[in-house]
Design goal:
Arc Repressor Mutant, subunit A; 3-stranded mixed sheet; two-stranded antiparallel ribbon; binds zinc ion
């Protein structure tokens, strides 16, 4: 059925030209005022995350705040490990905020951000994804960033049998950092051990 189509046209025609002009003008103002990216959860999330990162409503300094946070974490990794962090320090990976349900590029394919995913590191683009809500005031959120920075340093400085093999150390360092903040990581180490295993051929 096509209910409502003709009555709407009839209603518009019955409105005077001036009133119609005013209504269209208001509509245009509304359309121009609404951000172009409204409804895009990733962009909204990035703006939110930037504001949270600076701890205020002001924008513009959020990136610097995040850069500072990254520098502090790289220094921590430098002191906690024997890795040469100079490459990551001078050329840090890109950081992109994303939202649960969004799409991210990961190992040259697109994957959906599952509800339990808090962060990811895409080696092909040297890009860290942080899933909103994320704030530098939340140590668990910062620990996620630390974990992904560890991955960048791991892959910049040595080769791995498979990318999963780097997970065990990243989680270990993430736990150590959290413990230093007085927070229990509560990781499932059996699950992480399974996650960190490289896939191998199965022979029956
Ligand atoms: Zn990881």
């Amino acid at each position: 059925m096509s209910l409502g189509r003709q009555p709407i046209c009839a209603t518009l025609r019955s409105v005077s030209g001036i009133l119609l002009g005013i209504l269209l003008g208001i509509l245009m103002v509304i359309l121009l005022t609404v951000p172009v990216l409204a409804g895009n959860p990733v962009s909204d999330c990035q703006e939110q995350a930037t504001q949270l990162a600076v701890g205020s409503r002001s924008t513009g300094t959020g990136v610097n705040n995040l850069d500072r946070q990254v520098a502090v974490l790289i220094r921590w990794i430098d002191e906690a490990t024997s890795y040469d962090v100079s490459s990551t320090r001078t050329d840090p990976p890109e950081i992109v905020f994303t939202a649960s349900g969004g799409l991210i590029e990961y190992e040259q394919r697109q994957i959906v951000v599952e509800p339990n995913l808090r962060g990811a590191y895409d080696l092909s683009h040297r890009r860290i994804y942080l899933v909103c809500p994320w704030t530098s005031g939340n140590p668990r959120n910062v620990a996620t960033l630390l974990h992904e920075l560890v991955h960048d340093i791991q892959f910049q400085t040595r080769s791995w049998q498979c990318s999963q093999a780097a997970e065990w150390e990243a989680y270990q360092l993430q736990e150590r950092w959290l413990v230093q903040q007085g927070i229990a990581a509560d990781f499932n180490w059996v699950q992480i051990l399974m996650l960190a295993r490289c896939p191998r051929d199965l022979h029956w």
